[in-house]
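Human: I hope this is not a bother. Would you mind checking the protein record under this note? Thank you for your patience.
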Amino acid sequence: MPAVANSRTRVTTRSERLEARVSRETKALCQKAAEIQGRTLTEFLVQSALEAAKHTLREHEFVELTRRDRIAFVEALLKAPAPNARLQRAAVRHARMFEG
C-alpha cells in the first residue's frame, strides 16, 4: 500500500478499509463540506471520523479521571488521620478568635 503524508507531514500506511452506506442527502452534504475545505470526500470523512474519535476518547478519559478523583476524595475523607497536636492547637485558637 502507498504511504501518504498528512497535514503534520507524518507518513502513514493505509492498510485498513472502512465502509458506510449513507443516504444520498448525507453523501451530498459531506461532499459539499469536503469541497469547501478543499479535500476529497474520503479525506474529509476520515479526518472527521478521526477528530470525533479523539474527542470521544478525551471525553471518556475526563469522565474516568473525574470518577477516580471523586472516589479518592471520599476515601480521603472517610480514612482521614486523626488530628495531630498542632492541628488541635490551631482549632483551639480558631475557636477563641471567632467564638468569643
Summary: The mean pLDDT is 89. The CA atoms of residues 81 and 87 lie 11 Å apart. Residues 41-78 form the longest helix (38 residues).
